[in-house]
Design a protein that fits this description.
alpha+beta, 4-stranded mixed beta sheet, 4-stranded antiparallel beta sheet, 14 strands
Length: 377
């Protein structure tokens, strides 16, 4: 029998500790109909080696089953005019395995690809089957059905340590607490910081706006340019190509489809998009420096990039510009009055609300950013 060092305890993501519904009294009914709630499946347990791929896929099946039963419970439990339901398992399995089915990644293994592609297809098939079950609870002669995804996927080769690059440019200053491995930002010297988890938005630590702001408003535009320069200076450690596709000032946010409407005051002072095959790593890790006399000390990791490893890290991501084909998603509309169309130009996700409004005979929302698809009418 092994000693204490041989013992490991895995705790699943199944969670019934919180109220799941509004109103709260529906929670017990829902759990009775659908079973224990799974907060999220656990790809980290798989990537850390606690469980195997088949175990992880079984978690996704459990999640799909719960979603199916919970949705049908909701549809049958109350009178409804409009119903929304969401499942994230297709997204999750592709975050984990997508790079393994893309032949242009450095870690692609042709011998392993059929098994990984089969795993991804299994999840797609399960979701498809359960959509069929859900629709059996719906009168399709009088109901408009929309099935939509919000993004596509690209593989990951590198995870840039974004805070490392911002620190290298003198924009952010921090220390590591080596007891907890937590980053402690020195706000008295920090001029810019990313929105966690380091995707899309970077904020200037502006005096008069932010609690510990140090940047004079007169220097605002200058610091914006410094941030953009730092982002555009990030280069792939192997190819030397730029990692960031575009970086713009807040005033130019409409370039990326972010318009000056409600909530515009909460977006970053600089917005950016990564190229395919990159996902920013939000952490800084402690590393040990060893000396010839056997002593060592801890320092923040000096690397600018972490390579993606299949089965050890996420290998799929959706952070690139929406114009890139890999980011295109699917939308399926069905029901009475929906014509079959073949569209050459992709629709925008912002076109959904006005299109659905027109199909339902409602006025197009006054502040809709998209357009309705005229071909449907």
């Amino acid at each position: 029998m092994g000693g204490p060092e041989d013992f490991g305890l895995y705790q699943s993501a199944v969670n019934t500790a919180e109220t799941l519904t509004l109103p709260a009294e529906l929670t017990d009914e829902l759990i009775g109909a659908a079973g224990p709630y799974m907060e999220v499946d656990d790809p980290w347990a798989y990537m850390d080696g606690w469980v195997g791929l088949d175990f992880y896929l079984d978690q996704l099946t459990q999640h799909n089953d719960w979603w199916d039963k919970a949705t049908r419970f909701g549809l049958g439990r109350t009178e409804w005019d409009m119903a929304f339901t969401w499942v994230g398992t297709i997204d999750h399995v592709q975050h984990v395995l997508y790079g393994g089915i893309c032949a242009d990644t450095s870690y692609f293994d042709a011998a392993e690809e059929p098994r990984l592609l089969g795993a991804v297809r299994r999840v797609y098939s399960e979701v498809d089957e359960r959509i069929g079950r859900i629709l059996q609870s719906v009168n399709l002669d009088e109901t408009l059905v929309c099935v939509v995804s919000d993004h596509g996927f690209s593989a990951i080769e590198w995870n840039p340590y974004l805070k490392h690059h911002l620190a290298k440019a003198g924009l952010i200053h921090f220390d590591l607490d080596y007891g907890t491995n937590q980053m402690k930002i020195d706000w008295s010297r920090t001029r810019a910081f990313p929105l966690e988890p380091c995707h899309a938005h970077i904020f200037i630590n502006l005096k008069g706006r932010d609690p510990q702001g140090i940047v004079d408003p007169k220097e605002y535009a200058k610091v914006q340019e410094e941030i953009i320069d730092a982002l555009m200076a990030m280069k792939d450690p192997v190819t030397g190509k730029r990692v960031v596709a575009i970086a713009v000032r807040k005033e130019e946010a409409a370039t990326l489809g972010v318009f000056q409407q409600q909530g515009f005051d909460r977006i970053g002072d600089v917005l950016f998009a990564l190229r395919p095959q990159y996902m920013a790593n939000p952490f800084i890790y402690p590393v040990a420096v060893k000396y010839r006399d056997g002593t060592e000390r801890l320092i923040p990791n000096p690397e600018g990039y972490e390579p993606a490893q299949l089965h050890r890290n996420f290998t799929g991501v959706h952070l690139a510009l929406p114009a890139i084909p890999e980011m295109h998603a699917a939308v399926i509309l069905g029901g009475a009055g929906v014509n079959t169309i073949h569209r050459q130009i992709p629709m925008n996700v912002t076109d959904l609300a006005p299109t659905l409004a027109r199909l339902l005979g409602w006025p197009v929302p006054r502040n809709a950013e998209g357009n309705f698809l005229k071909e449907l009418f």
